[in-house]
């Protein structure tokens, strides 16, 4: 098996995606892999019309990643057009050709067992490369992938 | 020319709240735009029953349809940051898809005229097994598939500001559908490069014309003329369906192109040239989120097709994009000659 060279993590500024970012950064540092932090921009965010104000700060994301053990020389921040699932799936094919996708586990309003409304479940269903889903972090716990 | 209006639908159901730009009031603005034509009783309004399961499964997977119906039945929710479902969204989406089918049937019944389908939710982002970009069911694709099922050849021309990733992916390898899109790029949904030209069975039957922010109407018309027209004429469609988004208007809050309502009138005349005979042209509402722009654009687009004097605003000129068109012609030529350099665009 080839070594993991590129890890892509989805980041939207939420607590769950921050947990995923920390986990991916720690792994990339340990493996010496490149880490690409991807933020997908949809129709509403482009127009500044998201109902809940979300500020996604690339510099802060990079700080978090480095603080968690990522190599600053091997971390990149990317803003990509599209819905989160499509944007991340695009990272799995050339030219990016990621080896591993990492996402937080929260589905916004998903129903149990439904792909609709759950980016993580949808990615797990559709991705041709391994997907790590990092569960929510509770105080004092270390996040472990599921 | 006769005007058939298959709708409105989506005026009551599928309520995302007033904060969401894809809201019910869009349809009221569209209907105001139709009323401004002063055609009153001359407009034909065919009945618009919900699309049947067999119509939907030509385009969408059974698994997706089953899940969407169940998701709505359980109360719905947010599918992604843009796209919502409410308990009645399943029925609203089926009604929107059914309106497109009713438009086709009415055109065939009358043998002439032009049909307009003012419905919501819109459709062109919906893929075979995914909702996204405000779209649940792909209305124009469902109508096109009903035609190709009986051997007709269909041109889908998509002038929405966003690339119709769903329509492209559904007909990616279908030799009976020519998909042409002008859209802002780079932009949501991230697809629509000129090198996305179709699958092995339909090589060249996807024509993407990505345009930079600020592109004006003359750029869009030149793009269609230089990049798409030769393929359209060679394809020789039996039907022309338009993914008729008005969010390329300069006042739209979701897009950055710079068209006027007069540009949509010009585009409508252009599209009419591609129609093989009367009664083979239907326009499907997609985007358009500035209510005033939506209203006047509907009036001017339909007015142009019907030969009415609607006093549209002046067409726009001089925006960026002419260099991109020249590059698109060259890049498309290279992709057609060397398919291995073409992009995978089937979503």
Q: Strands, helices and their partners?
A:
The complex is a heterodimer of chains A (146) and B (347).
Chain A lengths: L5 E5 L4 H17 L2 E8 L1 H4 L11 H10 L7 E7 L2 H7 L9 E5 L14 H8 L4 E4 L12
Chain B lengths: L2 E3 L19 H11 L17 H4 L5 H12 L3 E2 L5 E2 L3 H22 L3 E4 L21 H10 L5 E5 L6 H6 L6 E8 L21 E6 L5 H19 L3 E6 L16 H13 L7 E5 L5 H16 L15 H16 L10
Parallel strand pairs in B: 1-4, 4-9, 5-6, 5-8, 6-7, 8-9
Antiparallel strand pairs in B: 2-3
Helix pairs in contact in B: 1-9, 4-5, 7-8, 7-10, 8-9
Name its key features.
heterodimer, A: alpha/beta, Rossmann fold, 5 helices, 20% strand, B: 347 residues, alpha/beta, Arginase, Chain A, seven-stranded parallel sheet, two-stranded antiparallel sheet, 9 strands, globular
- Biggest pleated-sheet summary of chain A: 5 strands, parallel
Assign a percent range to the helix content of chain A.
25-40%
What is the approximate shape of chain B? Answer: globular
CATH architecture of chain B: 3-Layer(aba) Sandwich
Mean pLDDT of chain B: 95
Task: Give start-end ranges of low-pLDDT stretches of chain A.
Answer: none
- Counted by DSSP, the helix tally of chain A is 5
Classify the secondary structure makeup of chain A into a structural class. Answer: alpha/beta
Return the CATH class of chain B. Answer: Alpha Beta
| Rg estimate of chain A, integer Å | 14 Å
Report the CATH superfamily of chain A: HUPs
Task: Give a structural overview.
The complex is a heterodimer of chains A (146) and B (347). Chain A has 146 residues and is an alpha/beta fold. Chain A has one domain (6-134): 3-Layer(aba) Sandwich (Rossmann fold), CATH 3.40.50. Helices cover 32% and strands 20% of the residues of chain A. A 5-stranded parallel beta sheet of chain A has the order 3-2-1-4-5, sandwiched between helices. By secondary structure, chain B is of the alpha/beta class. Chain B has one domain: Arginase, Chain A. Chain B contains 10 helices and 9 strands. Chain B has helices spanning 25-35, 53-56, 62-73, 89-110, 139-148, 165-170, 217-235, 261-273, 291-306, 322-337, and strands at 3-5, 77-78, 84-85, 114-117, 154-158, 177-184, 206-211, 239-244, 281-285. In chain B, the strands form 2 sheets. Chain B has a 7-stranded parallel beta sheet with strand order 1-4-9-8-5-6-7, sandwiched between helices. Chain B has a two-stranded antiparallel sheet with strand order 2-3. In chain B, helix 8 (261-273) links the parallel strand 8 and strand 9. The longest helix of chain B has 22 residues, at 89-110. Chain B is globular and about 50 Å long. Chain B starts with a strand and ends in a 10-residue tail after the last helix. The mean pLDDT of chain B is 95. The chains are: A alpha/beta (146), B alpha/beta (347).
């Amino acid at each position: 098996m080839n070594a993991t060279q590129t890890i892509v993590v989805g980041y939207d500024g939420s607590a769950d995606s921050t947990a995923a970012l920390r986990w991916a950064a720690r792994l990339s540092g340990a493996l010496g892999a490149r880490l690409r932090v991807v933020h997908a921009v949809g129709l509403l965010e482009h127009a500044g019309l998201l109902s809940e104000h979300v500020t996604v700060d690339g510099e802060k994301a990079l700080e978090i990643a480095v603080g968690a053990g990522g190599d600053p020389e091997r971390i990149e921040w990317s803003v990509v057009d599209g819905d989160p699932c499509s944007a991340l799936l695009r990272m799995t094919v050339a030219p990016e050709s990621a080896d591993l996708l990492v996402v937080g586990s929260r589905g916004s309003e998903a129903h149990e067992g439904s792909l609709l409304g759950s980016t993580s479940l949808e990615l797990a269903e559709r991705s041709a490369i391994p997907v790590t889903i990092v569960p929510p972090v509770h105080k004092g716990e270390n996040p472990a992938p599921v | 020319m006769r005007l058939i209006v298959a709708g409105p639908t989506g005026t009551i159901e599928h309520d995302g709240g007033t904060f969401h730009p894809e809201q019910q009031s869009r349809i009221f603005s569209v209907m105001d735009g139709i009323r401004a034509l002063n055609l009153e009783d001359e407009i034909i309004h065919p009945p618009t029953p919900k699309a049947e399961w067999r119509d939907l499964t030509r385009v969408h997977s059974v698994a997706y349809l089953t899940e969407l119906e169940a998701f709505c039945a359980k109360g719905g929710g947010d599918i992604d940051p843009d796209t919502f479902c409410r308990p009645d969204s399943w029925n609203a989406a089926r009604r929107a898809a059914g309106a497109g089918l009713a438009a086709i049937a009415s055109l065939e019944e009358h043998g002439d005229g032009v049909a307009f389908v003012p419905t919501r939710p819109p459709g062109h982002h919906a893929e075979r097994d995914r909702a996204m970009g405000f779209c649940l069911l792909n209305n124009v694709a469902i109508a096109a598939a009903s035609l190709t099922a009986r051997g007709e050849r269909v041109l889908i021309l998509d002038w929405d500001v966003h690339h119709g990733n769903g329509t492209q992916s559904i007909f990616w390898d279908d030799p009976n559908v020519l998909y042409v899109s002008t859209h802002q790029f780079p932009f949501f949904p991230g697809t629509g490069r000129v090198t996305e030209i179709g699958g092995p069975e339909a090589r060249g039957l996807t024509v993407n014309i990505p345009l930079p922010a600020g592109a004006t109407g003359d750029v869009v018309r030149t793009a269609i003329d230089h990049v798409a027209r030769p393929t359209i004429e060679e394809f020789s469609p039996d039907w022309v369906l338009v993914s008729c988004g008005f969010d390329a208007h300069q006042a739209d809050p979701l897009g950055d192109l710079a068209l006027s309502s007069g540009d949509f009138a010009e585009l409508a005349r252009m599209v009419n040239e591609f129609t093989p005979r009367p009664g083979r042209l239907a326009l499907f509402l997609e985007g358009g989120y500035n209510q005033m722009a939506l209203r006047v654009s509907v009036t001017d687009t339909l007015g142009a097709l019907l030969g009415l004097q609607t006093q549209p605003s002046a067409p726009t000129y001089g925006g960026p994009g002419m260099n991109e068109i020249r590059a698109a012609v060259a890049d498309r030529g290279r992709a057609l000659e060397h398919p291995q350099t073409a992009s995978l665009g089937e979503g």
